[in-house]
């Protein structure tokens, strides 16, 4: 398995800048509102012509509780009836999207995200699945990857059984922290017993994989307190685990104003929490996949990284790089071929477009050749921590040292600092550079340099 990262506090502080997370390249910041949707439709036609497999994403924006830290696109409401109107529009969009693709294109991956997808009732979840199956080819589900995000406060064994019956075989549980004081400060009180109950149900019902999210940097968190949470989570043995950085941006997200800034851990404590949590997870057998993500050695993500087939998209790390991604629902982002589109973020605008018989996308981007080359380089680095120049040269018919002369020059100080080994043949990210992979990828980002020159603060810190 891959070499574990080495934490170097001096280097972490030196390179802890703001930068993209590279769930896409180009990033969503580059999407343009004057985008011509015919580019997307043409790309969908090409996907159909070659019978490319599909990945579906469905955004369910509703939550019954507001979590103060959250920066997702969501609608907080106790009125479950609001979902009925939304589903009516969602189903109409599903029809429009499906009409662009071939009925023989098999769905290999499905993800329901939010918000809280389990805000929907069992009958509503069945209606979503029935609708998708009626217009897309789900085929045999033996090798399918169907996942859903869960709030353990709102899921019981009956719901878990229903999800399994509907074909879901992976779940993602938002845990964040098991410390009650932290939970109260972020308005997400969920006893460990609730999390364990969902986990027990998943294992009893033979779900293939359980993913858990933790967040560091929340109010009242301490190193000892968070390590206690990490120990308890490791004992639960989820297949995958994420350690996300809390970005406190109350000027952008109103609910974060309910968090007392004085209760947040200082930057040094925050770094120490991440440091110790990372080391503990690796010591206890988890593989560091990269970008906050960990997995057990027998998990598909760890195996894909070892075999060189790992990919990264808007759902994070994935093993389905060959699929075209069709995203449906408010704010969702699709990628078909070399074309990105994003749906309206506003519910009113989303519904208005559908009422007019239009796809509800309001911005997008068609990748050019330079985008494709840089995307391939960034994906290889961020997924596998290495890059073979000859492979890029052969694939794109270029001389790497000429095409990326500026990037290679910018990497030399990083090589001197021990973040990477730079040779005439390629790049190998060293253990000290793995925590700073975003910084390395930035050197190949053709847009990021322009943004830095314009002094645009568009991204979170890399650590």
Going by CATH, the homologous superfamily of the largest domain would be: tm_1862 like domain
Give the domain tally. Answer: 2
How is the CATH topology of the largest domain named? Answer: pyruvate-formate lyase- activating enzyme
**Computed structural class:** alpha/beta
Strand order of the largest sheet: 9-10-8-7-6-5-4-1-13
How big a fraction of the residues is strand? 15-25%
Q: What is this structure's SSE topology?
A:
Elements: H1 9-15, H2 37-49, E1 54-60, E2 62-63, E3 75-76, H3 82-98, E4 107-114, H4 122-135, E5 145-150, H5 157-165, E6 170-176, H6 180-185, H7 192-204, E7 209-216, H8 223-236, E8 240-245, H9 267-283, E9 287-290, E10 293-295, H10 300-307, E11 311-313, E12 316-318, E13 324-328, E14 333-336, E15 339-343, H11 347-355, E16 361-366, H12 369-384, E17 386-388, H13 389-396, H14 400-403, H15 405-416, E18 420-422, E19 426-429, H16 437-442, H17 448-453
Brief rundown of the structure:
The protein is of the alpha/beta class and 463 residues long. Helix content is 39%, strand content 19%. The longest helix is centred in the N-terminal third of the chain and has 17 residues, at 82-98.
Describe the structure.
It is a single chain. This protein is α/β, with parallel strands linked by helices and 463 residues long. The protein folds into 2 domains: 1-26 and 369-463, Arc Repressor Mutant, subunit A (Orthogonal Bundle), CATH 1.10.10; 30-326, tm_1862 like domain (pyruvate-formate lyase- activating enzyme, Alpha-Beta Horseshoe). The protein is 39% helix and 19% strand. Its cofactor is [4Fe-4S] cluster. It catalyses: coproporphyrinogen III + 2 S-adenosyl-L-methionine = protoporphyrinogen IX + 2 5'-deoxyadenosine + 2 L-methionine + 2 CO2. Its EC number is 1.3.98.3. Monomer.
